[in-house]
Amino acid sequence: MIRKYEIADTAELIKIWFEANKVGHPFLSDEFVTQVAKDMPDIYLPNAETWVWIIDQNPVGFISLLEDKIGALFLDPAFHGKGIGRALVDHAVKLKGALNVEVFEKNAVGRRFYDLYGFVEVDRYYHEPSGEVSLILALAKG
């Protein structure tokens, strides 16, 4: 079941982000990861439209939208491959239409997911805070 983010979800979403981050972003520095985690409750989550996937009354994944951009899509790794990520992106497409997302070039898990969904690379740049190359992917409304 999907529902809008509530402040009470914050700690659990940060925990999901940490665990999913280990799978998708093992190349990121501890310093960068720590800073993002610190910024999540006060900067990232309050400034995004976030939707949470709930199973047995517990968050297991979330998608954060910044207008037509997916700012975050993270699932508890125990729930990868069960269609939840696709359902969250489907929900975002219904709300926003055409979407774009940035994904690190080295994030094989994320790149595969977005490729299978139908996103295509439209640009790339050096993401200075992380020291990594980031790809900009787009999905045409359809």
UniProtKB/TrEMBL annotation:
This is N-acetyltransferase domain-containing protein. The keyword Cell membrane does not apply. GO terms for molecular function: acyltransferase activity, transferring groups other than amino-acyl groups. Keywords: Acyltransferase, Transferase. InterPro entries: Acyl_CoA_acyltransferase, GNAT_dom. It comes from the Bacteria. Residues 1-140 form the N-acetyltransferase domain. SUPFAM superfamilies: Acyl-CoA N-acyltransferases (Nat).
